[in-house]
Amino acid sequence: MQLPICQEIELQLQGSVLHLTLNRPQARNAMNLALVQEVMSVFDAIAERRDIRAVVLRGSEGNFCAGGDIKDMASARQAYQQGQVDPLFELNRAFGRMITQVNNAPQVVITLLEGAVLGGGLGLACIADIAIADINAQFGLPETSLGLPPAQIAPFVVDRIGLTQARRLVLTGARFNGYEARELGLVHFVSDSPEKMDALLEQQLQQIRCCAPEANRITKALLLSVGKIEHEALLDQAAAQFSAAVMGEEGVEGTQAFVEKRAARWAQSA
Fold this sequence. Notes:
Layout: E1 9-14, E2 17-22, H1 33-46, E3 54-59, H2 70-81, H3 87-103, E4 108-113, E5 116-118, H4 120-126, E6 130-134, E7 138-140, H5 154-161, H6 163-172, E8 175-176, H7 178-184, E9 189-191, H8 194-209, H9 213-225, H10 231-247, H11 249-259, H12 265-268
Parallel strand pairs: 2-3, 3-4, 4-6, 5-7, 6-9
Antiparallel strand pairs: 1-2, 7-8
Helix pairs in contact: 1-3, 5-6, 9-10
């Protein structure tokens, strides 16, 4: 399936890696409904693309994402006052559907976090398989200071850093930098320069290329199923997947490459 043509985001496919850049620099890449829908259309298009093994999310011109676009909220409020059926609900839920879709993507999702990482931007950081932050990035959940709950974001924040820390951050609107984000377990790596961030990204991509794409897809789905499927049923499902993998193309190639002391085909062709 071809990648969609987008206005609010930029797409660049480099080999097996899709670079997706939020491109609303005039609003610090705050998310409006059009941007949310474009991100969803991209992840719809790549859901079955086994040739795309990683997606790198970042923002343009030094900011990752400043959250939701206040102008969109104001327009939805006006529409609600004019009698439309709760456009504010639909606006909010659209973001929730988008972040859930990105969370469940079969590809490895990497976020590069610079500048503003606020509200919904922090929510996106929370669903990254690998998150790399600039030390001076500004993280925060300012919703309650605006009289709003972080409605679609809160569950992902709790999953990422735990209830104790989530309560403090959400109920105070605290701001924090890349170092504290790493201490909280929100991000994995911290960079002190664009060059180091690029080097960290390439290091992670090289490691991903060494892993079989279908095995990664199955493994990610398994990890996301923990706590959502009954324990023994999940282990039964995992055993069936393991058996199929051993007999499958990747399992045969991987074990043969190991015996022959060579790189597997997916690593050679990356």
